[in-house]
Every structure is written in C-alpha cells, then in structure tokens.
C-alpha cells in the first residue's frame, strides 16, 4: 500500500506531528510525503531526510502558502490517483483538509487513529476518549488522521527520499487568506513538550496565571497549558487549551494546577505518563486520574514548589 | 440570505459514557441526550446574524431517530424558523450526512451553512468539511468570529498556534468553535411557540442517499484504566517524588 502523508510545517521546518504520522503511515505501507506551500525548498529537503520516506512530492505555489483546504484538497486528490491512503496528522490543518479530500474521493474518513491494527483496520477514541472503537474501512482508498501522541516519532534524519515537484489546480478562487495572529512563545510547543504545567479557573486572574504558572513551567522546562475555564475567563490564550476541543497531549509529566478535571479536559491529557494534581478540593475528579495528588491552596503550594525545585 | 443549521442529538456532555459489556458500543439506553454543544453555538450564530440583518430565514436540520425532533424543537425555541427531520434508524456516517445535507442545500439554496466543528459522540470533525467539498464551496472551520459583508464572509479560525482569518466567497460553510459565542437559553414562551413552528419529516431515500456505513465497528472497549495514585502530604514530599522521577534536578 502506498501512503501519502501531509507534511505539517511552518514554512521553515517540519513539525513533530508529521513524524508521528510518518510512523503510522509506515505501519500501513510505503511512505510518500506531500509538502505544499510557498518557498518550501528547505522543508522539502528536511522532509526527505525523515527515516523511511520514499518520494517527497513538493507543490510550491502561492495558492498553497496558507494551506487553504479549498486549494490543497484538489492537489491531494490528484496525487491520490497513485496512492492508496492519505494520512494527515490531527493538527488543525490536517483536520481541515483531510475530510475535504475524503469527500472528493467519496470515502469515509477515520479520524484521530490510535493504532493501525491491520489492512484498513484502526482504533480510534470516541465519546471524549471514554471508549476506544476498532473500525474497519470498506472503501477503496483510505483517509485517516493520526493522533500524534499515540505514535512514536520517526527519526528526522537517516532517510533518503527523492524530491519531486508536482503541480495542480492552483487557486480555486473560493477562499483567501487575510492574516494570522500566531502567539510567539519560547516555551516548548504544547503537543510535543515532555512536561506540561496547566492552570485552571482557580488561578482567578490572568496576572496570577502568569505569576504562578510561568515560573513553575520555567523551572521544569515545561510547556504551559490551560483548562477551558481558564481560557474562557481570559487567563490564557485559546491555543493553550488542553482537552477534547483543544489540544491532545501526552507528556511524561502533566501538572494540573487548580483544574477540577471535567470529562472534556481529561480527554486531552489522561494518556500522560505521570499526572500530578494540585487542588484544594480533595473530591475534585482530577484526583481520580492523578498519580500524585497534593490537596492544598495553590496560591501557597505553587510558589513553595517553584522555590524548592 | 437563508442559513441552514444542521444539529445533532448526542449524549449530554456532562454524562460519563459507559461502554456496553458485550463491546458493541456505548450504552445510550436511559441516558440523558441533548443538542451537541457545538451545534447550539451554530444555532446561536445563525440567530445573531439574523438579528444583525445579515440573514432572513434559519432552517434547522437533524438526521436520525424520531427523538431528534426534540433537538429540532430546541433549535426552534432558540429562534430557528422551521425544521427538517430526516428520519432514519441507521447510524449515519459523516459522509452520508454530508450527502443528505448537500441535497437539502440544493433544494433550500442557503447562503451559509453553519455546523458545529465536531459532535461530542463520534468526535469525527468531518461533516462540515465534507459538505463543503461536495458543494464545491469555501469552508471556514473552527470559527471564533464570523462577519458577513455582501457576498463574502470573513471567518476568524482557531488554529494550532493562535488565530487565522480567511475570506470566503458565499455561499460557504462555517463550522463553529467553542469561543464563537455563548448560546442563549430558550425561554418558556419561546418553547411553547416552537411547538407550532413547521417541521417537515423526510427520509434519506427522499434525497436519494444511501446511508449504508462504509466503516464497520468490530468492537468498542473502555480505555486502559490508570493505576490508583497517591496523595502526598506536603510540597517537600512532592518535590522528592518529582526528583525520584528525574523531572527535577
């Protein structure tokens, strides 16, 4: 089986999510990549180095610069003429593009796979991760998105992919990119961080969030996350949100500070190796999944913890 | 401009789903069901666009069992003008839902279709994108802001690193993210009024759509349980534990 993997990149470097998708695709068959964008030579070269990669298809065109699904999907569909499966990481781009591709191919998509069980057979989480379904596709071609935390990352070097330019329909004229506000951060990216410190509503204000969470995260070299309550209250930006509707993370250590542990939040972090919870409510649901719990007032506990680390 | 809003009846988001012992699925007997939270946001956005004068009529659609009419009544009570129930006992996959919706769009000719970004039961996040593909329309997924001006709609989208804004030519598809708005509650008088709003009942066959699933679910299991954790009495013990794990130096 020949798979075509969507390469998630920021115009300069390949994102880690791609490496997990390559591992999943490798379990399905021969791995080809698609690098779409504008001025993406460097990305294509880097992609060709990923271990286990065969061909790297490069579509370099202004129409693909912002990964608009309307323009990218026809390109993918054309390439799917000689591939058996389209594999995309479950990033916002992957989730935006893959179903459009699936519908154009008239196939069902399998979202957010956790494992490859066999030919066209996958497991995936449903009901906010409270159940795991094994599904089999009867379609001629497969379209799947891959949960990054469920697959090891392929090595970023050691591969010898062959770069080949492709072109397709270009701008479909349905949509245009206006602008973006991408939050800049020196901290590790949430979805690939080894340690995450996450704050909830109990922090009470944006100032307290920064005052308490940031130094602890810095001490641990951790990424910073937040619950929906903290984001809705304006304590942290949207892209910090961990949960069913935000980012799905599975770091080595997840420190939940002032987070009660609603189903929707747990959906995004309960596969973390070690969960540490700090909450003053001993009955908070977070303690049911925590490996190490500390019942106490975060306003005294967190500064003390930061100081003693 | 007419707005079409598809809504789904799902398990209430506060209910912890239970996997059936025989591994065939999640037990939905006697479980509280509600409108999918993202769809409430979609209905609310459609109503706000009408209140701003950008929309004239709002049509709510639901596909599924007879009880989906309760979900549609909720949409009507919030402010939708009329409803279409596509009645089927089958489990309808996102692709088939998109095909039925396409047929309804062809009939109703809306300027905008607003859907939730995902249903909290199957967590697919596919239907809106698939419908956009089938119609050949632009798609503004994961919307946190929607502005309609003339024949374009400007959508601010929640993306991995922050936010992104796109312009779409209408007609277009929008899927809602949590931050788009705060859905209103239906008032009692509006719930009463909703009972007399028109609701058409159809079947997938009326739209010529085959709903036979392409995917077969062989089993549904509970995720692996976590080993019970420990509670530490103070920060010193926590620090010691973290050091044991090699997290802290």
Structure, explained:
The complex is a heterodimer of chains A (309) and B (249). Chain A is α/β, with parallel strands linked by helices and 309 residues long. Chain A has two domains: 2-165, Rossmann fold (3-Layer(aba) Sandwich), CATH 3.40.50.620; 190-308, TPP-binding domain (Rossmann fold, 3-Layer(aba) Sandwich), CATH 3.40.50. Chain A contains nine helices and 16 strands. Chain A has helices spanning 16-28, 41-48, 69-79, 92-105, 206-220, 228-232, 263-266, 286-289, 298-308; strands spanning 2-6, 30-37, 53-60, 85-89, 109-113, 115-118, 121-126, 131-137, 142-146, 162-165, 175-182, 195-199, 223-226, 253-257, 274-279, 292-295. In chain A, the strands form three sheets. A seven-stranded parallel sheet of chain A has the order 5-9-4-1-2-3-10, with helices on both faces. Chain A has a five-stranded parallel sheet with strand order 13-12-14-15-16. In chain A, strands 6-7-8 form a three-stranded antiparallel sheet. In chain A, strand 6 and strand 7 form a beta hairpin. In chain A, helix 3 packs across helix 4 (92-105) and helix 5 packs parallel to helix 9. The N and C termini of chain A lie far apart (50 Å). The mean pLDDT of chain A is 95. In chain B, helix 3 crosses helix 4. In chain B, strand 7 and strand 8 form a beta hairpin. Chain B has helices at 37-51, 68-78, 94-108, 127-135, 188-194, 235-244; strands at 2-6, 9-11, 33-35, 57-64, 82-87, 112-116, 138-149, 152-159, 162-169, 172-176, 199-202, 215-221, 230-232. In chain B, the strands form two sheets. A nine-stranded mixed sheet of chain B has the order 9-8-7-10-6-1-4-5-11, with helices on both faces. In chain B, strands 2-3 form a two-stranded antiparallel ribbon. Chain B has 249 residues and is α/β, with parallel strands linked by helices. Chain B starts with a strand and ends in a 5-residue tail after the last helix. The radius of gyration of chain B is 21 Å and the shape is globular. Chain B has a single domain, classed as Rossmann fold. The longest helix of chain B is centred in the first third of the chain and has 15 residues, at 37-51. The model of chain B has no long low-confidence stretch (mean pLDDT 96). Chain B is built from six helices and 13 strands. The chains are: A alpha/beta (309), B alpha/beta (249). At the A-B interface, helix 3, helix 4, strand 5, strand 7 and strand 8 of A face helix 3, helix 4, strand 7, strand 8 and strand 9 of B. Strand 8 (131-137) of chain A pairs antiparallel with strand 12 (215-221) of chain B, so a sheet runs across the interface.
């Amino acid at each position: 089986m020949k798979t075509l993997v969507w390469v998630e990149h920021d115009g300069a470097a390949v994102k880690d999510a791609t490496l997990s998708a390559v591992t999943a695709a490798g379990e399905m068959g021969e791995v080809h990549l698609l690098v779409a964008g504008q001025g993406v030579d460097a990305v294509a070269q880097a992609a060709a180095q990923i271990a286990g990669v065969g061909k790297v298809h490069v579509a370099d065109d202004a129409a693909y610069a912002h990964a608009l699904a309307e323009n990218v999907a026809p390109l993918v569909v054309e390439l799917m003429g000689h591939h058996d499966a389209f594999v995309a990481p479950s990033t916002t781009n992957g989730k935006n593009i893959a179903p459009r591709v699936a519908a154009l191919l008239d196939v069902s998509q399998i979202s957010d796979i956790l494992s490859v069980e066999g030919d066209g057979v996958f497991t995936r989480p449903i009901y906010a991760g409270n159940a795991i379904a094994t599904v089999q596709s009867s379609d001629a071609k497969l379209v799947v998105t891959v949960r990054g935390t469920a697959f090891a990352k392929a090595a970023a070097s050691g591969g010898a992919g062959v770069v080949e330019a492709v072109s397709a329909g270009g701008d479909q004229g349905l949509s245009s990119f206006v602008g973006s506000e991408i939050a800049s951060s020196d901290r590790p990216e949430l979805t690939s961080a080894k340690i995450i410190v996450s704050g909830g509503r109990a922090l009470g204000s944006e100032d307290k969030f920064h005052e308490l969470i940031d130094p602890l995260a810095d001490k641990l070299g951790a990424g910073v996350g937040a619950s929906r309550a903290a984001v809705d209250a304006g304590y942290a930006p949207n892209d910090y949100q961990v949960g069913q509707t935000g980012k799905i993370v599975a770091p080595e250590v997840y420190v939940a500070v002032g987070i009660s542990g609603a189903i929707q939040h747990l959906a995004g972090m309960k596969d973390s190796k070690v969960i540490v919870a700090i909450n003053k409510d001993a009955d908070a649901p977070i303690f049911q999944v925590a490996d190490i719990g500390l019942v106490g007032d975060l306003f005294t506990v967190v500064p003390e913890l930061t100081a003693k680390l | 401009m007419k707005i079409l809003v598809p809504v789904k009846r799902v398990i209430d988001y506060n209910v912890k789903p239970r996997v059936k012992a025989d591994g065939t699925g999640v037990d939905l007997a006697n479980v509280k069901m509600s409108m999918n939270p993202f769809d409430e946001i979609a209905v609310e956005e459609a109503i706000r666009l009408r209140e701003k004068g950008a929309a004239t009529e709002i049509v709510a659609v639901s596909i599924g069992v007879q009880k989906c009419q309760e979900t549609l009544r909720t949409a009507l009570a919030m402010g939708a003008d009329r409803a279409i129930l596509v009645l089927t006992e089958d489990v309808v996959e996102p692709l088939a839902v998109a095909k039925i919706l396409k047929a309804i769009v062809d009939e109703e000719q809306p300027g905008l279709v607003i859907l939730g970004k995902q249903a909290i039961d199957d967590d697919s996040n596919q239907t809106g994108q698939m419908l956009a593909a089938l119609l050949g329309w632009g798609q503004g997924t994961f919307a946190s802001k929607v502005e309609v001006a003339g024949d374009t709609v400007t959508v601010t989208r929640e993306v991995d690193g922050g936010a992104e804004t796109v312009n779409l030519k209408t007609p277009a598809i929008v899927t809602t993210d949590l931050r788009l708005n705060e859905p209103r509650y239906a008032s009692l008088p509006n719930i009463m009024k909703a009972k007399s709003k028109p609701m058409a009942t159809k079947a997938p066959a009326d739209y010529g759509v085959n709903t036979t699933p392409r995917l077969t679910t062989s089993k549904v299991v509970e995720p692996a349980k976590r080993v019970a954790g420990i509670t530490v009495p103070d920060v010193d013990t926590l620090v010691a534990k973290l050091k044991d794990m090699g997290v802290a130096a």
